[in-house]
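Thread: "does anyone have the structure for this chain?"

Original post by V.I.:
We have the sequence but no experimental structure in hand. Need at least a predicted one for the grant figures.
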Amino acid sequence: MVVHIVFFKLKNYPEGMKELKENISALKDKVKEIRDFHVGEDFGREERSFDLALYSTFDTKEDLQSYAVNKDHLEVIKNYVHVYCDDIKVVDFEK
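Reply from O.Q.:
Generated one for you, tokens below.
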């Protein structure tokens, strides 16, 4: 199994949070390679914190790669992530 974790820092928190979260969450039903998918807002609100996190799993590295180039995923990145976020961090690992 492959785990994909993404952290999002919004430019002007909380502006765009609802729209960003909804559109990222909608990918679960649009991308067949996704096995598990959770999106959550940070409640700590520390300076070192990011605002939103995505935790997702895939069966294989190839499935993660298919997700990475999926048209719906790319649309969310272009129309929401790039619009509302100024910093993004990603970690991918095998479990």
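V.I.: this helps a lot. The longest strand covers residues 85-94.
O.Q.: and The chain has one domain: 2-94.
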